[in-house]
């Protein structure tokens, strides 16, 4: 009986330690590891309370290593705003997204797909005659154009209202 009681106490004694170890991965420093790959990953930085991009070498390291910002944020929480590696500056405007020089991994991961409203209006190579609407970046407003029926790009809306809703209009004074 005494032996069974001892085993139960020992087993219960280990459970909180395992739980504690699991919850503390967010407090571990991000580690590149010994390999030489240049892989962008996300790790939680408790000093600034947010997930940040770091360069992972491809092997080794520790568990504070997430494939996506969302996975890091879901596990560790913190500031929900995605930012560049601490010390890097992030600039984004129409079809241009970069982090300052030397932060290529940041640029590759943070940059969203090209904004459809920044793409040129494209008819496409097909011969159909379909009235569509696209955002004309030079004039800052949605305009009607003829779509050929294939290819083109995402700057292609069924209605002018849809175009304005998605892209807005730049009011000129």
Give a written overview of the molecule.
The protein has helices at 2-23, 69-76, 104-110, 160-167, and strands spanning 39-45, 50-56, 90-93, 96-99, 130-136, 141-147. It is of the alpha+beta class. It has two domains: 24-110, Factor Xa Inhibitor, CATH 4.10.410.10; 116-167, Irregular (Factor Xa Inhibitor). The longest helix is centred in the N-terminal third of the chain and has 22 residues, at 2-23. The protein is elongated and about 60 Å long. Keywords: Blood coagulation cascade inhibiting toxin, Disulfide bond, Hemostasis impairing toxin, Protease inhibitor, Secreted, Serine protease inhibitor, Signal, Toxin. One of its GO terms (cellular component) is extracellular space.
Describe, in short, the structure shown:
With 173 residues, the protein is α+β, with helices and mostly antiparallel strands. The chain is built from four helices and six strands; from the N terminus they run αββαββαββα. The chain has a two-stranded antiparallel sheet with strand order 1-2.
Question: Features of this protein?
Answer:
173 residues; alpha+beta; Factor Xa Inhibitor; 26% helix; elongated; Kunitz_BPTI_sf; secreted; blood coagulation cascade inhibiting toxin
**Strand percent estimate:** 15-25%
What percentage of residues falls in helices of 4 or more residues? 25-40%
- How many domains? The number is 2
Q: How many DSSP H or I helices?
A: 4
Helix/strand order, N-terminal first: HEEHEEHEEH
Going by helix content, strand content and strand pairing, the class is alpha+beta
CATH architecture of the largest domain: Irregular
| Average residue-wise pLDDT | 74
Low-confidence stretches: 4-22, 85-95
Name the CATH homologous superfamily of the largest domain.
Pancreatic trypsin inhibitor Kunitz domain
- Order of the strands making up the biggest sheet: 1-2
* Oligomeric state of this protein: single chain
Tell me the total number of β-strands.
6
As for the CATH topology of the largest domain, it is Factor Xa Inhibitor
Question: Largest sheet, described in full?
Answer: 2 strands, antiparallel
Give the overall form: elongated
What's the CATH class label of the largest domain?
Few Secondary Structures
Q: Could you give the distance between the termini?
A: 88 Å
Protein name: Boophilin-G2
Disulfide bonds: 84-99
InterPro entries: Kunitz_BPTI (IPR002223), Kunitz_BPTI_sf (IPR036880), Pacifastin_dom (IPR008037), Pacifastin_dom_sf (IPR036201), Prtase_inh_Kunz-CS (IPR020901), TFPI/VKTCI-like (IPR050098)
GO cellular component, one term: extracellular space
């Amino acid at each position: 009986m005494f032996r069974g009681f001892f085993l139960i106490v020992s087993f219960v004694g280990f459970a909180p330690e395992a739980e504690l170890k699991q919850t503390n991965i967010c407090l571990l420093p991000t580690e590149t590891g010994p390999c030489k790959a240049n892989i962008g990953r996300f790790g939680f930085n408790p000093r600034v309370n947010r997930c940040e991009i770091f360069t992972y070498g491809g092997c080794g390291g520790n568990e504070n290593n997430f494939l996506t910002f969302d996975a890091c944020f879901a596990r560790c929480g913190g500031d929900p705003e995605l930012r560049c590696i601490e010390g890097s500056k992030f600039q984004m405007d129409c079809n241009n997204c970069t982090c300052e020089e030397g932060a290529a991994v940041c640029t590759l991961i943070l940059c969203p797909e090209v904004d459809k409203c920044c793409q040129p209006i494209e008819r496409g190579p097909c011969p159909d005659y379909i009235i569509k609407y696209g955002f004309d970046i030079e004039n800052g407003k949605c305009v009607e154009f003829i779509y050929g029926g294939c290819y083109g790009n995402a700057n292609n809306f069924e209605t002018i209202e849809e175009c304005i809703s998605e892209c807005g209009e730049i009011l000129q004074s």
